[in-house]
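Can anyone check this?
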Amino acid sequence: MKTNKNTITKTLIGLGLIVMIAMPLALNAKEGNEELKKENISKINLPASLKKTGYNEKVKVYYVIDKNGKVTNVAASTENKELKSSVENQFKKLSFPGMTPNIGNIIIINFKVY
């Protein structure tokens, strides 16, 4: 895992799927938020129909949380409609307690299947 002021990158390997997570924008830079973000993002799964060898898609996710840490607004940026819908629906179920509410956040998830 590589860490610096502006980016956190984590690689998850499982079922032939590698997910790269980059979190620019240190808008919510309270201690422990990076670990919370990584833990939550590791729960985002690629839809089964897209788990084919050679699949590679970068998804930029914009989200806002409320004072309770619940995701209130989410928009995934990708041309694949199935992946967009899946990522947005999964994100709506996440919680980021302790993060500053009503601030825009961006996470880039790079799905790669080998």
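Reply from J.R.: I decoded it. Residues 1-31 have pLDDT under 50 and may be disordered.
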